[in-house]
């Protein structure tokens, strides 16, 4: 009688993260080891997340992966590194209910199917590879019953995509650059969890972009090779800023947090400009957003909003508290109203309660907004921003036990 | 009365940051190329007469105040160096000590718009100092005069010479050794062609004076640039200019322009002088340079969005202009004759005579999906490296009336 076949499946959800002290530059391209520490805030997966289902079964004859419904190749070095490292840590698995028994040394002969889905557009430049690789590694670790904790798992996710390591935790996270040549001490640790500073509100402006950006991998390699300022940044500036940022987060010192965040974002972009050929990730809209925020912060006794930009024109704005966030969304909607044919409901997404607090229910309310008093001759730049996402600091990776959320069919192991 | 004409200049190794705000002493050396005054210049007439009861100045036809520190410094420093003047023909005899009791009238005119961000104060202060020195028969050479012009506007010191010029930062506290010297004259590398793209700008820029002070105070990268990067680049740039090594020249000029703007971005609050159009121009040039064996064009940007493009030679300049006109055509209602000004022979060489020729241009092969961004550039100026300050002996070019000393 033929042995009953089985499929063991696990579904995980991981958040994405935004660096407030930036990672830019590797000292080792293969192991993905950085030239400096970095610190990030994890975003609420309710609004931005990756969901990944991983399945193992003796009926699978090769490793396969589907991303947002399309099959992709797993032959690249980064995927291979993650798969190899996780497999090396696989342990015995026994599921009596389903009649599954996998010995430790069975894993190297078994193949996996992976289906991954981002609830935000890949093209929007919102760090989908960070969430993606973190989810892949976390899900596989659960599938294979690896004993490693999230920091140890982060060292594996790091080999898929550097910033992925920071998505293994919620709240504020630090990626310690490490010293070891094998990268075993280059991993993420949680500084504080997502409840520590829960009055922060995060508004992301997804900026319309005409051009395809330089990839981070290429860009940071060019920077390491050609920027005469990068080394000074990595050796002299970032170490001090990391310490100050840790203090600011611990003490919920928003003034210092904002000053450091903005300065580090600007310095990262300065290093990009100091590269050969120069890299321009921010565009005129990004600059206008910065200008709005700088003017408002300057007009108040104390900064109300921090801004930071990654390798693209999108602005991540971190408001001190709900009141500041409400005022911020009003100023942003004045300066960057939607195109006339747009629907407010798709123009401000995520946590819509901020919009409600701002008293904005429809496009008429947007049109009626007064100009921010701190900006002389404030202009309304229709269509410069594609949409806004309201969110907040969020938790780390989680397993989803609800089988209806799985992306693979429980019997075929193929995408639903 | 004396009338002088001075060129403007563009730094290829940038000055950004002072170690002394009053004397205008920089934190690093800088090197510039002087632009041909035939296309961009300041003309200044200075006059002295016992009938003038106060110092007065008119700039582009409007009277302006001379009470500011910078004007006062220049006037004081030049007056201290005034000598005897004797003009037997006109029956004028001024003794050295008479100068402190006499007043001057100054009329100055830029043949390019001030708002275009084309370094009008550099040309302006250089011209003022040069003209006054001639008027007052000062014995100082142009380097010594540059130390005075420097106190009006830092980059003005470099407009006291043609060709390629270096502003030595100096060490002395009193700034007496912070002055300009000529590296080579304008004939040394006369195949270079310079095309300036005057970029449409929506906003008023941060002033250089405020901007560089904020950078000195807040940029953690500026000190490293000034101490470690610029000294090496200055040496390499001097070599490249001396040897007419365009490849090195271009690499250094572009890198230094980008690093200057990087320091501006690293400032608190951040300063953005370049805009999307500036970036698109850089992208065009970078793509072309990379597609050729050796760079054809260097770019550099000052404290504004305008691009100064230095082409290796006439052939490169002609191709450059074709690529620029493809990527940045004029608005449909524009007149080609006012869209490309200065030396129009480059346009001729490019075979472009009217708007139809502009519309018919082919896309640069090295740019995938090349777009045509109408109206992003206000106009282009074609010029070249040029000579230093000169006196204009033709009295009809004087800006003040020979009898009243008032603007014509």
TrEMBL record, chain A:
Q: Which catalysed reactions does the entry list for this protein?
A: (R)-5-diphosphomevalonate + ATP = isopentenyl diphosphate + ADP + phosphate + CO2
One Pfam family recorded for the sequence: MVD-like_N
Source organism superkingdom = Eukaryota
Q: Which residues form the Diphosphomevalonate decarboxylase-like N-terminal domain?
A: 15-188
Looking up InterPro entries in the UniProt record yields: GHMP_kinase_C_sf, Mev_decarb, Mev_diP_decarb, MVD-like_N, Mvd1_C, Ribosomal_Su5_D2-typ_SF, Ribsml_uS5_D2-typ_fold_subgr
Q: What is its EC number?
A: 4.1.1.33
Q: Which family does it belong to?
A: Belongs to the diphosphomevalonate decarboxylase family.
The free-text function statement in the UniProt record for this protein reads:
Performs the first committed step in the biosynthesis of isoprene-containing compounds such as sterols and terpenoids.
Q: What is this protein called?
A: Diphosphomevalonate decarboxylase
Automatic annotation (TrEMBL), chain B:
The Mvd1 C-terminal domain is annotated at 194-391
Q: What is its EC number?
A: 4.1.1.33
Highest taxon, organism lineage: Eukaryota
Keywords for this entry? ATP-binding, Lipid biosynthesis, Lipid metabolism, Lyase, Nucleotide-binding, Steroid biosynthesis, Steroid metabolism, Sterol biosynthesis, Sterol metabolism
Domain called Diphosphomevalonate decarboxylase-like N-terminal: residue spans = 7-180
Keyword ATP-binding tagged: yes
In terms of NCBIfam families, this protein maps to: mevDPdecarb
Spell out the family assignment given in the record's similarity comment.
Belongs to the diphosphomevalonate decarboxylase family.
Record's protein name: Diphosphomevalonate decarboxylase
